[in-house]
Amino acid sequence: MLAVGDGHEIYWETIGNPRGVPLVYLHGGPGGGASEGIRSWFDPERYNYVIFDQRGCGRSRPLAERDDVDLSLNTTHHLVSDIEALREMLEIESWYVLGLSWGTTLGFAYAQQHRERVRGLVLGSVTTTTPWEVSWITEGVGAIFPEAWHQFATHVPIPLRNRPLVDAYAELLMDEDMAVVESAAREWCRWEDTHVSLAPGHQPHPSFNDPAFRIRFARLVTHYWRNSAFYEGESLLEGTAQLSGIPGVLIHGRYDVSAPLVTPWRISKMWDTSELVVMDGGHSDAKLPDLVAAAMDSMT
Question: Which of 159, 204, 205, 271 has the most neighbouring CB atoms within 10 Å?
């Protein structure tokens, strides 16, 4: 555990060769936590890879499902500061950055603020959490899943239906009545599981069976999404042009309806030293681990 201030401690671990290629993994969500499966993605003889749980989730403390949670102390800028505190504590001069889903937004934010600490980036299922992306994933994609979206939208009480859905859910998830919170978290996570895959026979994420995880995850996602990752408009996306000179690989599924391919395509046009790899798959495709590992191996 590393104390990072504001009463937060983040869980971290290192895997592999202490003299290997340094690599830090930024998990998705926000609030998903670093799954143990990531430990097996890379050659432990070749890499020294660092895994940590972002504020409010996983094995970090305090967790976001607490009644007294203060989400004002959990922003992209706090998380970037935490990454730097971890790097300094481990005495790593610079490292490669791997981000998946929300972790790609965080990876862009970190690289833009600490360019000199980044040797290269591999980013899978790319997002930048712009207002357009948030609107798409909470409302626009309902055109593909109208039945599920109707249930998701009509769960919001009539007095809140004049608000964007992400704002309405964020308010429900911080309600004083825990029954309201638990119900909103269940509906939010049901919607997440609906749009994340077009694959026949897709199975719900097992973590969503845990009521505490549902609250933690839904609170953090809505907090970050309603604030567009705490960046103005498309400033984070447009800032990716600053990364030219740093090697990068963007891996994205053509059938990713949660996060349309247009975002990494736009980034690849601005970031001169990036490569866009388009796979025939969706947001959480089974091919992603092998493609990520191969991209990192080729870069290092």
Answer: 271
Q: Is the preceding omega at residue 62 within 30 degrees of 0, hence cis?
A: yes
Look at the alpha carbons of 25, 226, 56, 214 in this order and tell me if their dihedral is positive or negative.
negative
Structure tokens at 59: 């094995």
256 is catalytic: yes
Question: What torsion, rounded to 10 degrees, do the Cα atoms 288, 292, 295, 297 define?
Answer: -130
One domain for residues 189 and 274: no
Catalytic residue (choose from 60, 283, 284, 285): 283
Q: Which of 60, 78, 101, 252 is catalytic?
A: 101
* pTM of the model as a whole: 0.97
78, 195, 252, 256: the catalytic one is 256
Does 298 qualify as catalytic in the annotation? no
pLDDT tens, residue order, the chain (300 aa): 999 999 999 999 999 999 999 999 999 999 999 988 888 999 999 999 999 999 999 999 999 999 999 999 999 999 999 999 999 999 999 999 999 999 999 999 999 999 999 999 999 999 999 999 999 999 999 999 999 999 999 999 999 999 999 999 999 999 999 999 999 999 999 999 999 877 666 666 788 899 999 999 999 999 999 999 999 999 999 999 999 999 999 999 999 999 999 999 999 999 999 999 999 998 988 889 999 999 999 999
Q: Which domain holds residue 184?
A: 132-229
Asked if residue 245 and residue 97 are part of one domain, the reply reads yes
Residue type, 28: G
Structural domain total, the chain: 2
User: Pairing relation of β-strands 118-124 and 47-52?
Assistant: unpaired
